[in-house]
Write a structure and sequence with these properties.
alpha/beta; Rossmann fold; two-stranded antiparallel sheet; 12 helices; 17 strands; disordered N terminus; acetylesterase activity; monoacylglycerol lipase activity
C-alpha cells in the first residue's frame, strides 16, 4: 500500500498501488474515477491538517476531553427506537433519526447505519457529531439523510434478553440489523459508520460479506485493528492500565450490573455464573473483564468460547481481513491514540481500502477550534466521504441474498439459522443524555 504525505501536520493517506475504478454518475456517466481521485476531489478535508485545540495538544488530553467534556448542548439528535428480536433470544436497539414526527423522508433516502463504541450508544457525542449534520435537512445545510444507530445488546437501555453479550468479532447482530433495514427500505443506499469497537465489527462484517455486502460504502473511525498488539500496549504501562483499561473495564462492569436480574433468569449460563466474581472486584481492566466475561459470552458458538483473551483478540482482529473488503472503505486513525497504537498501514494492498492517519487527535477525539467553538475534525471527512460514495459514483449493484419471511422471522437465503423480527417501539431517545454511572466517549 502506497502513501501520500503532504506538508508537515497533514494526515498521511495510504492507497493501494492498484486503485479501484468506479463509474461516475450523470452527467459524466461515461467516465470512471479511482477511489484515490474521488477522495482527493470530493473529500478534501480528510487530507487537510488536523489542528488540535491549543489546550488539547496531545492524545491523552484529546481522549480525556472526549470522556469528561460536556457535550449535552451541542449536536442535538433525537431518535425513535425500535427493538429488534434476534432468533437466539437476544435484543438489539435500532435508533432511527430523524424521528418520524420531525419530518417524512422519501424511501430512497440514503441511510447511515452506525455501530457505536465499546459501551456506548446513540447518545454518545462522537455519534451525534456526525449524525446531527448528516440528518439535517439540505436547506439547513445538512445532507438530508436518515441514520440508524445499532445499539448492542444491553447497552444504553436496550434490554438483555439472553445470556449473550457482544464483542469485537460477533458480526451476526449487525448482519441482522442491516438485513432488517434493507428489507424496510429496499430502495435506500446503506452506508456503514463504525467507532472504535464498532469500527472493528463493521470492518469484519464488510470483509465477511465480500461481494454480497449490502452496504454501498463504509467509514471506520479509531478502529482497534490488531487487538492483541493493542491490548498488550494498553495494559503495558501503569498509566494506560490504570486510566484507559480500567475505565473501559469499569464501564462494562456497570453495564452488566444493570442487567443482573435479567441475567439471573439464565442461572446455568457462564455469564450468570461469572457475576459473583465480577461484582467482587472493586475495579478491573478491560483485559480482566474479557477474561471473565467476553471470551465466554461475547458471541455464539463457534467460535465462542475462547480459551484466553489472547486467543479471542487474535481471532477478532480486523486488520487481517482487510484484503476481503469489496466496497469503498475509508478508515481514519490518529498517530497519538493512547488506546490504539498499531495501525495496519503497510499490511494490506486492497484497492477498495483507504487508510488515513492524522497527526494528533487521540482516541475518538479530534477536537479542533474554529473561532471560539470546539468541534470534532472527523465530522467533515465522514460527511464528504458518504456524499461522494453515494452521490458521485455508481457503486456496482451486487447480487445479495434473497430476503424472505419464514415462520415470522426475517431471514436470508442460505442463512436460515439466523433471523430477526420487529419487536415494537422502544421509546424516544434523546441524544446527549448521559447514562447514569457510565463514562461517556468510550
Amino acid at each position: 500500500m502506497g502513501s501520500a504525505l503532504g506538508k508537515l501536520g497533514n494526515p498521511k493517506a495510504f492507497f493501494s498501488a492498484r486503485p479501484a475504478y468506479l463509474p461516475l454518475k450523470q452527467p459524466a456517466a461515461s467516465e470512471n474515477t479511482s477511489l484515490r481521485a474521488l477522495l482527493e476531489s470530493h473529500c478534501p478535508s480528510v487530507l487537510l491538517p488536523f489542528r488540535p485545540a491549543w489546550w488539547l495538544f496531545n492524545g491523552h488530553l484529546q481522549t480525556l476531553y472526549a470522556v469528561l467534556g460536556d457535550f449535552s448542548v451541542v449536536d442535538h439528535v433525537a431518535y425513535d427506537r425500535r427493538l429488534l428480536q434476534i432468533k437466539d433470544g437476544g435484543t438489539l436497539g435500532l435508533d432511527f433519526t430523524p424521528p418520524a414526527s420531525d419530518r417524512v423522508l422519501p424511501d430512497d433516502t440514503p441511510i447511515i447505519v452506525v455501530l457505536h463504541g465499546l459501551s456506548g450508544g446513540s447518545q454518545e457525542s462522537y455519534v451525534r457529531a456526525i449524525l446531527a449534520p448528516a440528518v439535517m435537512s439540505t436547506h439547513q445545510g445538512g445532507l438530508g439523510y436518515r441514520a440508524v444507530v445499532v445499539t448492542f445488546r444491553g447497552c444504553a437501555g436496550v434490554p438483555l434478553t439472553s445470556p449473550q453479550l457482544y464483542s469485537s468479532c460477533h458480526t451476526d447482530d449487525f448482519r441482522q440489523a442491516v438485513l432488517y433495514i434493507s428489507h424496510r427500505y429496499p430502495r435506500a443506499p446503506l452506508l456503514g459508520l463504525g467507532f472504535s469497537l464498532g469500527a472493528n465489527v463493521l470492518t469484519r462484517y464488510v470483509a465477511e460479506e465480500g461481494e454480497e455486502c449490502r452496504l454501498v460504502s463504509a467509514c471506520a473511525l479509531a478502529c482497534p485493528w490488531d487487538l492483541a498488539a493493542n491490548s498488550d500496549s494498553l495494559h503495558a504501562t501503569w498509566l494506560s492500565r490504570n486510566t484507559y483499561a480500567k475505565a473501559m473495564g469499569g464501564n462494562l462492569k456497570r453495564m452488566v450490573s444493570q442487567h443482573n436480574d435479567s441475567i439471573m433468569k439464565f442461572p446455568d449460563s457462564r455469564l450468570a455464573q461469572s457475576l459473583p466474581e465480577l461484582f467482587s472486584r472493586k475495579s478491573l481492566t478491560l483485559g480482566q473483564f474479557d477474561n471473565l466475561i467476553t471470551i465466554h459470552a461475547g458471541g455464539t458458538s463457534p467460535p465462542f468460547p475462547f480459551k484466553t483473551p489472547h486467543h479471542y483478540y487474535t481471532y477478532a482482529a480486523s486488520h487481517q481481513v482487510l484484503g476481503d473488503v469489496r466496497i469503498p472503505f475509508l478508515a481514519i486513525n490518529s498517530d497519538d491514540d493512547p488506546i490504539v497504537k498499531y495501525v495496519p498501514v503497510y499490511e494490506t494492498d486492497n484497492e477498495w481500502v483507504i487508510l488515513v492517519v492524522t497527526r494528533g487527535g487521540g482516541h475518538m477525539g479530534w477536537f479542533g477550534t474554529t473561532g471560539n467553538v470546539t468541534r470534532r475534525w472527523m465530522t467533515q471527512p465522514a460527511l464528504e466521504w458518504f456524499r461522494a460514495t453515494v452521490e458521485k459514483i455508481d457503486v456496482p449493484r451486487r447480487a445479495v441474498r434473497n430476503i424472505r419471511i419464514v415462520d415470522g422471522w426475517l431471514v436470508e437465503s442460505g442463512r436460515e439459522h439466523l433471523g430477526c423480527r420487529d419487536n415494537g417501539e422502544g421509546g424516544k431517545i434523546e441524544g446527549g443524555v448521559i447514562q447514569k454511572g457510565m463514562l461517556a466517549g468510550l
